[in-house]
Amino acid sequence: MIGIYAEISDGKFKKSVLEAASYANQMNSNGVVAFCVGSTNDDEIQKLSKYGVNKIVTIGSISFDSQNYTQILSKAIQKENIQTLILANTYEGKSIGPRLSIALNASLATNVISLPDMNQGFSVKRSVFSGKGFAYVKLIKDTKVIAITPNSIDLIERPTSISIENFDGAVSENKTNITSTHKAEGKIPLTEAEIVVSAGRGLKGPENWGMVEELANLLGAATACSKPVSDMGWRPHSEHVGQTGITIKPNLYIAIGISGAIQHLAGVSSSKVIVAINKDPEAPFFKAADIGIVGDAFEILPQIIAAAKLNLN
Amino acid sequence: MKILVCMSVVPDTTTKISFIENNTKFNTQGVQFIINPYDELSLTKAIEIAEKNGGTVTVATVGLSDTEPVIRKALAIGANDAIRVNAEPKDGLQVASLLADIVKSNAYDLVLTGRESIDYNGGQICGLLAELLSWPAVNVCTKIEFENGNMQFERDIDGGRQNVTCSLPVIASAQKDLCEPRIPNMKGIMAARTKPLSVIEPNINETGSEYFQFENPVAKQAVRMIDANQAGDLINILKNEIKILS
């Protein structure tokens, strides 16, 4: 059996959970079991059945602690006789994936971007060197934990019926205590965004980000920035994409006033379509982009915004 | 407080990545090696905590003798001593198992590392090590402080940040924003030469995976240029030709 960890975010399953289900339903197995902690509703559970999940094991709500989540999840997973567990490489997935691999005595691969290749034992492709390379790695233990990069697996529907089972297990008291949580309301998390509008020093100052945000809103995109921009405090570090920032792979990446240094490209080069806008025709970004516009951001952006208003729903 | 910082030695961020021996090995020729940038943040933070609250900072690296110049740099930044496990790093499980052994035999209160290394980008060590030790862990931290007898953390979560407290012992990983990395001064560089760097032989050899092939990303086709006066055409192309917008 293949297991997936179905992370619940505000009572819902995120797209990355459906990607994990799509990954699992393409593997040769006699069923897909989802494991979730916390409460959700029937509509959400039916959504999983559309992507090939036959069974969901629900665990009552507990405050997030990677150690306790691992303890209870590994018990539930072992009970279902799971050989391979798929989870998304979100922040929560990063906290529990490695722990689960130890608890389950499993091989672990993170940042995985391909389905397993069974011709080489059991091997997967993962991105390494911050997007500057790929590696093929063989997982040698009988049990496997695979953490997939969001946006790297296509959604594949495989409708089935789904049974629901509750798993009751005692957990000890959490050793870590969450004292407060701050979430940016209505903002698309950068790592999950399908479209990203990113800007650099070419914008000249933080006061000019209104244009960037306006375009992002029109496209339903998340906003990002280059390292110098976050280093100067124009934008928060959480928006910094690149080798020492966040690595992203959206369907569309629009870079405005970013030269395209190798460290920046490392974080974005896996994007499906890259648009570079820069006033310097020699900017290295034009070598990595699919579409380029040479021009000043202050002249180019208003034209694009006007066209987006006119032509997009 | 006894603090252990787990450190990776990685290629400099400007390195052009290439592979040799039929794409089975990373080409290290001409490559400059550095302290993994996230580990450098955890090292700086460890030194700050030890300075404020009293304590020592030990750096541990799994690597062959060629990593020693980089380990000396960590000592120059301000670590008190260093341990090198004389083994070639193979995968996260092997490295974490070797590090767990060091933690078990030295009674550390706090273990810090980076959120991931910039070469293999696994982001595994914090979680693997924590589970091997049965310790609590707080991953991807933008704040790590010891206050009123407890550890206080701020960590990244999807779409936001979260504050977390925990008593010792605990393991945490560093995210950008945690602090400014410290640059070694002349006094530190001189002192580093005589600070203890012990080399231990590995007594565990467990791995969970084997890397057998590498490749570089496929080169992009030539860029298609749009005239600056027709910049609005971009939307049309993305919508009607590439069909990525609706």
Task: Please explain how this structure is put together.
Chain A has helices spanning 15-25, 42-50, 66-79, 91-103, 209-219, 227-231, 262-268, 285-288, 297-311; strands spanning 2-5, 8-9, 12-13, 32-37, 55-59, 84-88, 106-112, 123-128, 133-139, 143-148, 163-167, 176-183, 195-199, 222-225, 252-256, 273-278, 291-294. Chain A is of the alpha/beta class and 313 residues long. In chain A, helix 3 crosses helix 4 (91-103) and helix 5 packs parallel to helix 9 (297-311). Chain A is elongated. By secondary structure, chain B is an alpha/beta fold. Helix content of chain B is 27%, strand content 31%. The longest helix of chain B has 17 residues, at 37-53. Chain B is globular, with a radius of gyration of 21 Å. The mean pLDDT of chain B is 95. The interface between A and B is large, with 98 and 84 residues. Strand 17 of chain A pairs parallel with strand 15 (224-226) of chain B.
Notable features of this structure?
heterodimer; A: 313 residues; alpha/beta; Rossmann fold; 2 domains; seven-stranded parallel β-sheet; 9 helices; elongated; B: 246 residues; nine-stranded mixed β-sheet; two-stranded antiparallel ribbon; 15 strands; 27% helix
Give a quick summary of the entry:
In chain A, 28% of the residues lie in helices and 28% in strands.
- Any idea what the shape of chain B is? globular
Architecture (CATH level 2) name of the largest domain in chain A: 3-Layer(aba) Sandwich
The total strand number of chain A stands at 17
Q: Report the radius of gyration of chain B as a whole number of Å.
A: 21 Å
- The level of helicity of chain A is 25-40%
Order of helices and strands of chain A: EEEHEHEHEHEEEEEEEHEHEHEHEH
How many separate domains of chain B? 1
